[in-house]
Structures are given as C-alpha cells and as structure tokens.
Amino acid sequence: MTQPQVETVSSGADKAKLAVAALLVVAAVAAYYLLGQQDLWIRVVALLLALAAAIGVFFTAEPGKRLIGFSGDSWRELKKVVWPTRKEAMQMTGYVFAFVGVMAVFLWLTDKSLEWVLYDLILGWKR
C-alpha cells in the first residue's frame, strides 16, 4: 500500500507570500493594541486594513488560488443538490419526531422493567 502524497507549498515565492500574510496578521493585531491611545474606530480600521492586506496576499499564493478553486467547485456542487419540497421536509420532520417519541417510550419501559426486575424481584427491595 502506497502512502498518499502530501502537497506542500511548492515555490519559494509562495512561501514568501504566506510568510508576508502571516506577518500582516501579526502586524494587524499589534497595531490594534499599539494604537490603544487612539479612538476605537481608528484601531478597528487599522486592524481591518491590515487583515484585508493579509487576505489579499494569501489569495495571490498557490494555496489561496486552490482555496478559491475549491470554493467554486463546492458552489457548483451545491447548485446540483435537489432540495426537498416543504411538504417532504415536514413529513420527514414528523417521522423523526414520531421515532424519537417511540424510542423514548421504549427506553422508559425498558428502564422501568429492569428496575422492577432488579429491585423488586431479585433484591426484594420494596418502595
């Protein structure tokens, strides 16, 4: 049996882009706290701008491009799903509730039967 190949970041440029994206995330958090004396809106804008830059750099790297491709493929597959009608959904929900009710009664009866056998018949404890 062969081991599956693990895909890694292939080029040095992609590694550099991922490193820059990571540094931008760290810089975003650091800027938020370093600007502690500023108004909150300035801190939030600085955080969001740096995070947007990090996301932008990430999506230019190969892993980011693969993520975009995967998202597109997932969206296309989601469009192929045949969703149930309201009537079908309500029927299936009813079946689930009925099954849960039947199982609850069954488990309650089993519990009470075992309790009666163990405590009343075998141990002879009377309540």
UniProtKB/TrEMBL annotation:
> Where would you find the membrane-spanning parts of this chain?
18-35, 41-61, 89-109
Q: Where is this protein found? A: Membrane
What is the name listed in the Swiss-Prot or TrEMBL entry for this protein?
Answer: Protein translocase subunit SecE
Q: How does it assemble?
A: Component of the Sec protein translocase complex. Heterotrimer consisting of SecY, SecE and SecG subunits. The heterotrimers can form oligomers, although 1 heterotrimer is thought to be able to translocate proteins. Interacts with the ribosome. Interacts with SecDF, and other proteins may be involved. Interacts with SecA.
Which family does the similarity line name?
A: Belongs to the SecE/SEC61-gamma family.
> Any keyword Transmembrane?
yes
- Pfam families attached here? SecE
Function (record text): Essential subunit of the Sec protein translocation channel SecYEG. Clamps together the 2 halves of SecY. May contact the channel plug during translocation.
* UniProt keyword annotations, A-Z: Cell membrane, Membrane, Protein transport, Translocation, Transmembrane, Transmembrane helix, Transport
Q: Name the PANTHER family for this protein.
A: PROTEIN TRANSLOCASE SUBUNIT SECE
Q: Does the keyword Metal-binding apply?
A: no
Q: Which organism is it from?
A: Caldimonas aquatica
Entry coiled-coil feature ranges: none
